[in-house]
Amino acid sequence: QVQLAESGGGLVQPGGSLRLSCAASGSIFRFYVVGWYRQAPGKQRDLVATITPVGNPNYADPVKGRFTISRDNAKNTMYLQMNSLKPEDTAVYFCNVGTLWGKGTLVTVSS
Fold it and tell me: I want to staple 9 with a disulfide (CB 3.0 to 4.6 A). Which of 18, 99, 105, 111 is the partner?
């Protein structure tokens, strides 16, 4: 069974950067639109960004110009480069491939 595993979360000061990774254990990765979502405490899970199999990205308005999604199909891995982080970016970040979800990685932006 294909599994997803996120990594790279942590505590960062406002204005800082983090890079999240999501590795898929199987080979289906390259055929899917993949994406990152986030869920802040007490809120619903929201889209952050998606990227097509050929690398066309799409971003939610709150992260445009600050976050960059990318993928490496040969490594079955996707990334989320997050720059100029704000306290409101604090959330658990989940990767998604088709109907599969990772367990999430916590990003905390605080001074």
Answer: 105
